[in-house]
Amino acid sequence: MDDVRLVGENVEPGIYNFKEALRIADEQELDLVEISPSAVPPVCKIVDYSKFLYQLKKKEKEQKAKASKIVVKEIRFGPQTDDHDYDFKLKHAINFLEEGSKLKAYVFFKGRSILFKEQGEVLLLRFANDLEEYGKVEQMPLLEGKRMIIMISPKKKVK
Prior knowledge:
Blueprint: E1 3-8, E2 14-17, H1 18-27, E3 31-36, E4 43-47, H2 49-66, E5 72-77, H3 83-98, E6 102-108, H4 117-130, E7 135-144, E8 147-154
Parallel strand pairs: 1-4, 5-6
Antiparallel strand pairs: 1-2, 3-4, 6-8, 7-8
């Protein structure tokens, strides 16, 4: 490494010899940090390294906070869920999808009720059909052990 492009506060930006750049950093009691190694010549900045690391971590934390977290809400049915319970759970499902949560609806089969798995599938398909304008089916009804599961994700809001 012969020459580096130097940037930073209290420094005349330009191309310097590496040893000269180190000397300038030492005079200011700061560190010489390589910012862009792939550039020709490499870009270095004169900064307090611990402060530089702190600011990097702070930026990463802010980006993480901005990233959306996916919440999965669950709704449980029995194979013979009556209309009132169904409507009640449908209202909750609509609220969950409108707030942007994913929905995992399942029919739980106890004991011999596994004989009614077609009934459970019909119930889940009806549920998905009723939620069509609020979310889209991500996974069709699937029997896993004693439960039949359907996944529904919220539709993107058009502004």
